[in-house]
Amino acid sequence: NWLRKAEFLMSAPKLNLCVEDSGFEIAFAGRSNAGKSSAINCITDQNQLARASKRPGRTQMINFFSLGNPDQRLVDLPGYGYAAVPEEMKKVWQKELQNYLIERKSLTGLVLLMDVRHPLKDFDRMMLEWAKDRNLFVHILLTKADKLNRGPASTVLLEVKKELKKMKLDFSIQLFSSLSKLGLEELAMVMAGRLNY
Ligand code: GDP
What does the record list as coiled-coil region(s) (predicted)? Predict the structure, then answer.
């Protein structure tokens, strides 16, 4: 499994300090607590990998991981909406996130994680609009799907699909659970496609 080759490369506080903008990159984003670290650890089968990003000082950093070679990368974007972060910092950080999404040439896809019980919050909509502006491929994960029964989970999936259509967004979406590993293969396939694996 190629995703197991994931290795931490570096953390960058802003776009102009990132690793060289070459090759292919797929970025993971979501509101804090959406299950991003768990998902990254789950798909790479490494319990500690995304823990570096969780240290307080690094929550505002862009964290880069190589996937077998430095030109195929996974990027862990800062979780958005930490209550502990002051408003001013949030604004600065929002700008950095926007810069990254709009200007990063090697970025070939965005994986946007949303808790299946709280989908499409303001932050999520903002990310989707930025991605649309840039024509960026987005794959949405409705995370913690194990928290709902199959019926209700499928209903959320359909509702979010409908809402995306209303927003004129043609993005792919799936249910995901780091706990039960639901949707793991589907995600790996999507990522392989975006990274030319
Ligand atoms: P992050 O802030 O987006 O990186 O979120 P974390 O990965 O740290 O997860 C936030 C909380 O949700 C933690 O308490 C996790 O144990 C829990 N969690 C994450 N993924 C799942 C999942 O697939 N199922 C369930 N039931 N809980 C999850």
Answer: none
